Amino acid sequence: MLQQFGEYVGIVFGSFITIYMVLVIGFYSVILFLSLLQLRREYKLDKKQAYDEYLNDLYTKPISIIVPAFNEEAGLIQSVRSLLGINYPTYEIIVVNDGSTDDSLNKMIRHYEMMEIKKVIRKHVETKNIRGIYQSKTLPNLYLIDKENGGKADALNVGLNFSHYPYICSLDGDSVLERDAFLKVMKPIMISNEDVIASGGSIRIANGCKISNGNLLEVGLSNHPLVIMQIIEYLRAFLMGRIGLSRHNLLLIVSGAFGVFSKSWVAEAGGYKTTTVGEDMELVVRLHRLIKEKGVNKKIVYVPDPVCWTEVPEETKFLRRQRRRWHRGLFESLWAHRKLAFNPKYGSIGMISFPYFWIVEFFGPIIELLGYIYVLCSLFFGGIYLEFAIIIFLLSCLYGSLFSMASVLLEEWSLRKYPKVSQIVKLFLYSMTETLWYRPLTVFWRCEGIWQIIVGEKGWGEMKRKGVSE
Amino acid sequence: MGTNEVTILAFSTIFILILLVLILLYLIIRKTKENRESFNIKARKDEIGLALFESISQGKVYDLPNIDRHSLKAIEELLKDYSDTLVGTAERHSLSSIADRYLSEGYRKVLKGRSWSKRINALYHIEDFHLHQLTGDVRDLLQSHSITKEEVVISIRFLASTDRFEEIFEFVAKKYTDLTDYDYRSILFKLDEDSFRMLAERFSECHSTLQWSILEIISIRKELSYLSFVETVFHTYKGETRIRALKAIASIGFTTDMEQFFPLIESNEWQERMLVAKLISFFPSESSYTILETLIHDRNWWVRSQAAQSFTKLPKGKEQLKQLMESSQDPYARDIAAEWLQKGEI
Using CB atoms, which residue from B23, B120, B180 is nearest to A193? Predict the structure, then answer.
């Protein structure tokens, strides 16, 4: 009797996981299909031509680039130099020193000959106190604001208050932009008659690339397995996920590392939220909410072409921290705006995006973890469980490898950043192994993130950077 | 587990594997081909580059040694590079004729073809190389039902550079009324002086987006000859059009009668107050200082900031601003005055 009951539970549980996976795979297949259609249409389009036109126009909108910096002395000077070389008609760079305890501030002042200035700041958003404002004597479009420590979101808010231009871009201290990145990321905003209020570009992984003085010299592929897996992950997330979601204005994430926002909208939404570790996603959700509540037809989009190269963790320890933090950030955004979920008033954001992020992105790891446990147990019990186990395993391989390869395909149709055949083969071989080690690891870390939510852990955790530039 | 199920599982595994291998093969073949292709094109470019440049700069006839796919691609890329840098009319003309000789036929076919991205590429090249011989084909494309907005904009822009005012007017004012400000501006920029003047004369027949674009272009070009036109628009129209006309006047930086704008100091629209503050900086007189003093105390930040900036442009402005900074009761006005006084130092 008991054995029968056990068997019954096993079958029900096995079927549940199987159905869940089929649904998820179904959802991703639809998104993949949309992305394939989109990129295939633009296949062989001469992008350079299409963007050149915008550079010559007198009407490119000026941007304020905000670089929050907390103890980034290793890469800050280089990042700023990379920004000074971008190809864009009018912009200003605002470095916000968030009470660094290292030598960031003095290094900036010395290197760029900055002098203290008097300046009126419009307070769109409340922030921590500002200690001083500096402007470079040689490069008048470079500003430095020294403020009390208040976290990344607070630093971004200071930059928002200070900025002179109608569009703001948040940028991580240690990332390298391609020269035309701003032109490309601004294009949807410029041509849409301001119907697009935020636009985000692609994030690619700088580890393994040759970068000198803040300029990307050669794209390379790291030899580190963890990094290669993250490359595949990023390709999948950006090219497959975001193109599909962006097309239907379902995008909930504009990466904090590189995104442009309309200042007036961000100010109206109340700026960046300082109490979450996922301030980038939270802001986008709030903007969507504002759009719906005002009943206007505005969009938030993703454009694949502009690329920002950023450093990712190479050690398990730091990757684990990052993933736990991301998962907490995801939860905080979803929870803070929980009333949007399944709320028809918020249209497709409420009915598609939110349920997707709750079910697939947030609860997914728990179900996947149970799946792994199930597969392991079935090896001992055999029989009917084993059948389910094999199906689950196959499905997850399908998920892992097929979608990964499809993303490499999308990459080849669109950006083509990896020039060598060997690099493609390498990506392929690694993507075959994802289900066996990388996926379980990230699933486990995300579950740890959920555990941290339950026990109420806060904070970012230290993140070590060695600097991408030589 | 039954044999049946094992077979199904085995088959699906094999199926997935085959699919993966096929994708991989496709990617490898594609990449190899592409790399070889770009290598070949580059080699051709090196071969023909110098001779091509010479014939363009000296207006000589150019003969391509052998006409194959790579050479054509190479010549297209080279011509594109030159077209970005060339300034002389004679050179442009000879570039056009070379492009016409080798590339027109290909573009003609592509424009009739099904690939959207190829059509767009061809349109850009037709525009860059001024291939007026293809005007008819571009016009045919505009008639097609499945044309996308991107194609419409580039096509009209190309036609705009070919002196057919009536046709362009029909397109921008009647047929395609849903383009953005940006698109209209990019088209209007291509019109020659006479065509643009004719368009301005028919201002009242245009829809508002087009009207705004006309005013924006006058703003950008700061053309004094359009002053009375924009002043008339300012007095006859309302709302956004009126503000844009005022903006054009402020950009031109001149008016026959400054006093006509004085009442705007009390306008409910902050944009109007700001633009008056801007315009007044071109007219140094006693009343200018008084008006700016009022505006620097405005409740709107932009107006205050513009008023302070305008002060700095007037002959005695800086001293006045310094006085204001010391004597004004309004902390906002004092701050903005201090900021603009310091601006000149960096």
Answer: B180
